[in-house]
Amino acid sequence: MILINQKKSEAPMAEGRVTADDVAQRAGVSRATVSRAFSRGHTVQEQTRERILKAAQELGYQPNALAQALTSRRSQIVGILMGQLKNPIHAVLHQSISMSLQQNNFIPISGQLGADEDLAKLIATFRQYQVGVVILTSMNISPGLVQEFQAAGLQVLLLNRIDDDAVAASVCADLTQGGNLAARLLVERGCSRIAVAKGAPGHWTSAARLAGHLAGLERMGQAPAKVFDGGYTYQDGARVADTLLSEASDMPDGFLCPNDLFAIGLMDRLRAASGLRFPEDMKVVGFDDIPMAEWESNQLTTIRLPVHAMAKRAAEVITRMVVEGEKVEEKIWIPCRLIERGSA
């Protein structure tokens, strides 16, 4: 049996969950003062706050986030609504925004919205957990989606998404600027027959990347040798590679891809089927900079999404919304960066 030597000045901890009343008793303050000490934006004298925090640490107390949201109407709980995580960049973005929220004392909870999901049920769940702001990311924004969340009393932040029909704050990568960088690189590297592949149809990100690629080529005095109906998957890249191999026309000497998965699928199939070399026979540029892009077998030159910068700015915007009570409607654009590796 283990004996614990307890100081006489310390009140014995009650069995079960430690409450704000226990902390108040230990610190010699009211329960309301304890609540204010743990609530952002509330003023408590520094000496009193230190005494409360010391008592809370001794007792192992953690404030109830749901109760705080109910009493203060300022919820620190943030909902992150994701699409499917098959593309690694979505998982990287989710991890980065979750960490940024936690570093700013917010509590992230995640949900997914598939084609057959009940939006009303999801909204009800977010409201049940007193979610203050919903981040919509890694998914195509269907018409009216933002308005449905807003009508339910939920603030909305779009992360790397745009909805021209809704009034909402957004933090986005400048995908068109990134496409420009990719096109300029291939022309500067001597490519004169540059093919371009579109992304998934109906997505704002696809249109923005394609616009950047085409504008970049035009600015450098070129037109695309061919524009393919591509996609965002490894299989899409392999399919377009098969199309290239089946055509009798000249193989392009440069290829602007809609994302990294597509680029890797394209290179793998061309390498395996015809022994094509990168960058000697064709220079390829991806988009996103997923972890697989730097693998030795890929060494993919690509456009890096500013994931960490977007996550940091998103957390700052949510702080303005929740803590400062500000109505934020601005669109924040963050530039992309060219990452040069062996494929181009």
Task: Report what the structure shows.
This protein has twelve helices and twelve strands. It is α/β, with parallel strands linked by helices and 344 residues long. It folds into three domains: 20-63, Orthogonal Bundle (434 Repressor (Amino-terminal Domain)), CATH 1.10.260.40; 73-173 and 307-334, Response regulator (Rossmann fold); 175-304, Rossmann fold, CATH 3.40.50.2300. A six-stranded parallel sheet has the order 2-1-3-4-5-11, with helices on both faces. The longest helix has 16 residues, at 88-103. The radius of gyration is 26 Å and the shape is elongated. GO terms for molecular function: DNA-binding transcription factor activity; transcription cis-regulatory region binding. Keywords: DNA-binding, Repressor, Transcription, Transcription regulation.
Annotate the secondary structure layout.
Layout: H1 20-27, H2 31-37, H3 46-59, H4 65-72, E1 77-82, H5 88-103, E2 107-112, H6 119-128, E3 133-137, H7 145-151, E4 155-159, E5 169-174, H8 175-188, E6 194-197, H9 204-219, E7 226-228, H10 234-246, E8 254-256, H11 260-274, E9 283-285, E10 302-304, H12 307-322, E11 331-335, E12 337-339
Parallel strand pairs: 1-2, 1-3, 3-4, 4-5, 5-11, 6-7, 6-8, 8-9
Antiparallel strand pairs: 10-12
Helix pairs in contact: 1-2, 1-3, 5-12, 8-9, 10-11
